[in-house]
Predict the 3D structure of the following.
Amino acid sequence: MRGLIFLMLLLGISCAQQPYSEIDAPSSSMPPTESDIIAYIDQRLEEEYYWLDEVNQKSSLFNRRLPWEQYLSNALSKLTTNEDDGYYNSKGQRSYYSYIHEVSTTRAEVSGFGILLHYTILIVDNNNNYGFVVESVYPDSPAERAGIKRGDVITEVDGKNINNGNYVTLFNNIQSSGVASVDLGYVRRSESGAEYSALLERGVYHQSPIAYYDVIDVEGYNKRVGYLVYLGFESEYNEELEEVLAYMAAEGVKELILDLRCNGGGALSSALVLCSGIVPSSYEGKTLCSVVRNKKNVVSSEHSDFKLYDTGELLNLERLTVIGSNNSASASELVIMGLRGLDFPVTLIGATTQGKNCGMDVTYKTINGKSLEYAPITFMCFDAKGFGDWGEGIVPDVDLTSQSNKYGVYDDYYPLPYTEWGDSRRDIGLAVALADITGRGISQKDITRSDRAEDVAIAAELAHPVAGIRLYKELNVSK
């Protein structure tokens, strides 16, 4: 197994932080935990935020009487130059990529139900009741053990219908495992709406971003095709990612379909592992991306290049096919644009990606017993040719949301999941990717969807979290 590169930037900081003159101190009447955390937020915004110039100009407008959980987004909303930090939903509401939240001692092993829900909410009956579509299920989680599958539609929670008044709470209870147990009623569209139920109790499982992988033999095509569904660039699973690529190499895979349609980004180290394991040895030492910070960044203002390594040892491919969507962002987009910047052919199938060409240096700190992960946007990314303008998203080569694409195969509700991972009869993304690789034609009738009702109605959409391109700093300081 190849040695892994750990991109850990060490940051030393005094335990006794003094307020900066440019930033108003929090109210002295606030509890120490609140004021200390807000001071911590302020310090990194002033020293490292990519748009730190405007932070210094407008810091007096920041409302330091807010709870720390609300303070960061409120402060960022006072700025105008930071348009690349976040996105707007269909209702015009702003979500920021920069974040701060409490974390557990371990990121990989979690306690919960193990369900990822699609953020589009459906209307499922004539009474305007709602349904949650299962995007993915983590291996060996309570949800998987109960038999829940991707594409299932949850219609009842604890015996109650889902409606406009309760859907946000119920969604969060399932997605974030906010309750100890939950009794779900759901239908399986791939089985013509067969009804099921499952009682889930919180359990410990590993949140592996490798949702599914397989080697596909297409009749009449002489190359084996690897298929990998990757949910997030999580450095804790770099070794597992390499093992999957090594398995595919041993199986003689010569083409790869990388499914990033649910991947909002993650660690740059994982993007390097993935790309280094795909390309031939001729790409050894070439720059996948460059990171550029504000020149006034106090911690690091240097231009950093991140280079491919140990190339040609695993898959050694000539091209890559990516399935993407508007949920694909950050490190997912970096893989596409970084490889294209090296003239390595990448075909994108699906929909225009979200458009996130910036990233964050992540620090961990314990303040008065609260373990915090803090990640303000601190840098922009560029490919080897100096191009970084994909802030409006990457336009796909085959747009599955438009019937005018070269195959004429489309889905108005893409990337809404209909079936399990790996089902090339019902999954339009995988079906078209295979057709594109093999050079065969495909038509709408080739996508078997007896369950594909024409009267699908969208009730609402919730903001999809984006992980961002992350570089990690060690910060073991307590207050």
In short: Residues 1-27, 475-479 have pLDDT under 50 and may be disordered. The first helix runs from residue 32 to 48. The radius of gyration is 23 Å.
